[in-house]
Amino acid sequence: MRIAIIGAGNVGAALAVLFKAAGHQLTGIASLSLSSAAAAAQRVNVAHGTDLLAFTKQAEVIFLTTPDRVIVEVCEQIVSQNGFSAGAIVAHTSGAHSSTILESAAQNGAYPLSFHPLQTFANPDAGIQNLPGSYITVEGHEKALPIARQLVEELGCKLLEIPTASKPLYHAAACIACNYFTTLVEEALQVMEAAGVCRDDGLPALYPLIEGTLKNIKRVGPTRALTGPIARGDASTVKIHLSALEKKLPELMPFYKFLGLATVDLATAKGTLANLERQKLQEYLGGDV
Ligand SMILES: NC(=O)c1ccc[n+]([C@@H]2O[C@H](COP(=O)([O-])OP(=O)(O)OC[C@H]3O[C@@H](n4cnc5c(N)ncnc54)[C@H](OP(=O)(O)O)[C@@H]3O)[C@@H](O)[C@H]2O)c1
Description:
single chain, alpha/beta, Rossmann fold, N-(1-d-carboxylethyl)-l-norvaline Dehydrogenase, domain 2, 2 domains, 8-stranded mixed sheet, elongated, binds NADP nicotinamide-adenine-dinucleotide phosphate
């Protein structure tokens, strides 16, 4: 297939490499700045530039891999100059937005698609490495879906199809799993630092624990993977944590308590928490008893 990339950032540059490796022909890569377009194009040896319409007309699939906030205006700009061919597929890779934000493409006879790689692209190389084997979530025009399924397979990825209206909630789930998990690790490191363990030692020390936890979650799911004082009903241990935090990091108490209460619910679902201990935990963590 002939594919154009508009927006030569982390996702655009990675997809360009992966699509080329899958045997597709890139018509070109356009971006806001010439330097980004050139850097991405150099990876795949294709034409590049800042003219957003230079490579769209001859493409069968056009990926708008710009930041979410400009997808609508970039699409409308191309549509207004009749830049998409009739029958082409216009795709964005946003997680939160649905294909409906590309509805203007219909004026050129093109079909909108959302094609969200459920993976984190910290930079193009990380994306190229991590994407194969990941899920890609697609929804959009029925004429676009067969091609989307084919592209997912050719990228070595797994397909997840969701209803158009589900995209915001679906993306909230992805953010909790990825971004908020990252924040969680950062908070744990801050607590380690308060305990006198510097960051350089703290992260390598916590990492095997994190990996072990992830493996358990993969194997048996989060409920059965839950261990620790709340799962065991050791309310007195949680009390010790709270008084230590209050002395050294009082600003982290709401964070600890909020997640602690959610963990009490998970332990209750696991069935390992006696009623009395659950009441004590809820009292210490500030929830309803
Ligand atoms: N990063 C992730 O982990 C990830 C994961 C899944 C999905 N996504 C989605 O993928 C899309 C791209 O994200 P990203 O992380 O790759 O963003 P990014 O690294 O910031 O790249 C966006 C690119 O779009 C270019 N751009 C900005 N405005 C433009 C315009 N008006 N016209 C043409 N190009 C323009 C940027 O400009 P320059 O030319 O100035 O560089 C930049 O190269 C977003 O919809 C995002 O939600 C991201």
